[in-house]
Amino acid sequence: MLSELATNAVKHAFPGGNGRFVVSVEQVGSDYVLTTTDTGPGFPEGFDPAGSDRLGFRVLSSFARTLDGTLSFNNKDGAVTTLTFPAADPRAAKTAA
Questions:
Q1: What is the Cα 22 distance to its own chain's centre?
Q2: Are 78 and 42 a contacting pair, CB within 8 Å?
Q3: Among 45, 48, 61, 83, which has the highest number of CB atoms less than 10 A from its own CB?
Q4: Residue 93 and residue 97: Cα distance in Å, rounded?
Q5: How many Cβ atoms from other residues are within 10 Å of residue 41's Cβ?
C-alpha cells in the first residue's frame, strides 16, 4: 500500500523531483488509521477513485477490502489518502468462533 502511494506521489505530485511525502499511523478507538499526505497539487477536481480505471487505485481498493477497511481521498495542501481498518483481525474472530 505504501509503495503504491509513494510511487504515485513521485510520478504525479513531484514531477520536478521535489516535495514531501508523509506517512502516519494511529489507533483511533478500535481502528487503525493510516494516512499519507504529499505536497503536490492534489487530486484533480472531480476526481472519483471509484470510477478510476488505473491499476494503482484498483490495487489500493483491493488491499483495503482485504483488511475490511475503507479508503478516502482528499485534498489539503496536496493529496491526502486515508485507510481506516479494524485493529483486530476480523479473520481471527471468525476462526475462534
A1: 12
A2: yes
A3: 83
A4: 6
A5: 14
Count the helix, strand and coil residues of the chain and give each as a percent rounded to the nearest 5: 35, 30, 35
Q: Exposed, middle or buried by CB within 10 Å (0-12, 13-18, 19+), for 5?
A: buried
Neighbouring C-beta atoms of residue 57, cutoff 10 Å: 19
Residue 24 has pLDDT above 90, yes or no: yes
User: What does each C-alpha distance from 9 to 40, 68, 72, 86, 87 come to in angstroms?
Assistant: 8, 25, 16, 26, 27
- Looking at 1-97, list the stretches that DSSP marks H as alpha helix, in order from N- to C-terminal side: 2-8, 55-66, 90-96
> Under DSSP, is residue 25 helix (H, G, I), strand (E, B) or coil?
strand
Q: Tell me the pTM.
A: 0.82
Q: What is the mean pLDDT of residues 34-42?
A: 95
